[in-house]
Design brief:
about 350 residues, mainly alpha, four-stranded antiparallel sheet, globular
């Protein structure tokens, strides 16, 4: 259900006729023409609905995984962390019911790793001083002015609560307490990003509700061996997912793995980009792109790629340098002669 809700809320990212370029995983992969893109998206939605109704239908699983993988190869902006996790979770159902315990342990590993890695990534000044106050701002405003600064300053504690939830889920003695903490964390994310809060990135809302539900179902009063969560000598699928979901993100600390796949979406460590443009180039841009050109009172006009993607695709941009360079190339493709557009990639932590 969460998967279906996410795809319905982010329907524009699955289309190719839109106000944002399609950036395939590999150069040279052609984009699906319209209305073929709409047909494939419609099939994806129908398969997701059918899978919900007929969970044990193997043919549906195969079709859904193949089609989702095919569409994700077609555009890097579809590689949102929740879509990658959905893909891995759907793939797990191939092994149901033979490896039921193994599948549950894979799902448990995903929940635990999410809390621990998210918390670690959030231990930085940008999250503590900017991202967290922005997220909790709508909640803080409900309290008296004298209390509000204390709530906004909770960014010093929040990352450690997330880590505590993940670690607590590992041990029988603390598991049920960690379940409640984990649910509260996901409900906080849900509220902060919903129309009740900051009204941002709605596609991620079903995912947070799903993960809150999974935290309860997979862990409350559950008994399992700690070693079975992170490895199996016989279940190859579990081994692969542990490497993808828990090991490779460690490489992001050394700058050699994608931030988006390393639990950095709201950590404050993401890369951002502006594309500065001249007025003469703006006149050559399609009308659907012109609307995203911001003209400050002083300085050059520019396109802020985060807001461009959020409005045109209903998802955050895939915040890697190679993607921003492709966006720059797209804007330059409308230039007559030498391109006057200038790309600036930056992070709120300073530098790049």
């Amino acid at each position: 259900m969460a998967m279906l809700g996410t795809w319905l809320l982010s329907n524009k990212v699955w289309m190719t006729e839109r106000n944002f370029p399609v950036i395939p995983i590999f150069d040279g992969i052609p984009s699906l023409p319209s209305p073929v893109d709409y047909i494939f998206y419609s099939i994806l939605i129908v398969l997701a609905i059918y899978q919900i109704i007929y969970l044990e239908n193997r043919n549906t699983k195969i079709a859904l995984v193949v089609l989702l993988g095919f569409l994700m190869i077609g555009d890097q902006n579809r590689w949102q962390p929740y879509n990658v996790q959905y893909f891995l979770m759907i793939s797990a159902l191939f092994f149901y019911p033979k490896f039921t315990d193994g599948i549950l342990n894979v799902f448990r590993m995903m929940v635990i790793v999410f809390f621990i890695f998210s918390g670690i990534q959030e231990i930085n000044t940008v999250f503590i001083e900017s991202i967290f106050p922005w997220m909790i701002g709508p909640i803080a405003s409900l309290f008296p002015a004298s209390v509000e600064p204390n709530i906004l300053g909770g960014g010093y504690i929040f990352p450690f609560l997330s880590i505590a939830a993940g670690v607590g889920l590992l041990f029988q003695q603390t598991r049920d307490y960690a379940v409640y903490l984990g649910i509260l964390i996901h409900l906080f994310y849900f509220y902060a990003l919903s129309p009740m809060g900051n009204d941002w990135n709605h596609a991620i809302l079903p995912y947070n509700l799903c993960m809150a539900f999974f935290t309860y179902v997979l862990f409350f009063s559950a008994e399992f061996k700690l070693k079975d969560i992170f490895w199996s000598k016989t279940f190859r699928y579990q081994q692969a997912v542990v490497i993808i979901f828990a090991v490779l993100p460690l490489l992001s600390f050394f700058g050699i793995y994608d931030r988006m796949q390393s639990f950095n979406t709201y950590s404050g460590k993401s890369l951002y980009a502006k594309i500065y443009v001249t007025e003469s180039l703006v006149e050559l841009l399609p009308d659907g792109v012109k609307r995203y050109v911001y003209r400050p009172q002083q300085g050059e006009p520019y396109i802020e790629t985060t807001y461009w993607s959020a409005d045109a695709l209903k998802v955050s941009p895939y915040s890697e340098e190679r993607v921003y360079k492709k966006l720059h190339e797209y804007v330059c493709s409308f230039s007559e002669g030498d391109c006057s557009a200038r790309l600036e990639i930056y992070s709120y932590g300073g530098g790049h």
